[in-house]
Prior knowledge:
single chain; alpha+beta; N-terminal domain of MutM-like DNA repair proteins; Helicase, Ruva Protein, domain 3; 2 domains; four-stranded antiparallel sheet; 10 strands
Amino acid sequence: MPESPEVQALADELDARLRGASLTAVDVLEYQVVKTRSQQPSSLVDARVTAVTRHGKYVDVVFADRHLVVSLGRHGWARWSSVHTRGRDEEADGDKDAGARAPGTAAPALVTLVFDDGLGLELTDSGSWVSLATWVVGAPNDVPSVAALGPDPADPTYARADFDRSFAGRRKQLKAILQEQKSIAGIGNAYSDEILYAARLNPVSHASALTADQLERLFRQTVGVIRTAVSARSGIPLDRLKSAKIAAMKVHGKAGEPCPDCDDTIRDFAFAGTTAQYCPACQTDGVIL
């Protein structure tokens, strides 16, 4: 799942290449992607991009009076292309069967945006079910999930008071809070693993059980891990961002490998329909989750 550091790098590249460009054509190949049925992406044709920014894990392509908000979901991404679209008016007749795809196939382009310099931007989804989503709205907060986003630790204004409102005294597991977008925006499964490893904290401990020193450590590592990752991903081309993220992970996705900081082995545990990783020696006093 793309998280804030990679989505920020994506938004920065889109902003650099698309700002000032006019949208000339839209091709939607999967009707499920469009969440605002009364405002299709084709309604933006001939409009000029004024900026591209990020809200949590969402990309916001800003036009003069409207926004194309994109959620990459679990398996979505973007790539540049010179592929011509089928035409502006075909999006509503997209492939109704595209929601079921065989795993392991190349990521299909579900939406293609073409700009006046001939540049094409393809929005893809590599999952066996469609998680990519788009909205055409007057303001980003017209998307309910964007309006509900909590403060973002990548934001320079994010402060300890923001963190305390999300964590202090809560009887909820640390990993769950880190991934709870209404509490703290932009963090998913991978970076929550990395933050908790860096903070040397048990992923399933409740926030209410933390000492003052542990809370301070978690705050520092939440900000530090995310901002370091944002800086590290900056300028990396779109087709290399996912591999750069994977290469930077210390524990996430590393089950069965040696811990980078001790003699123990990174372990898996089930969490929210997926798996997460941790080091027993560094985080759980040797307890296997």
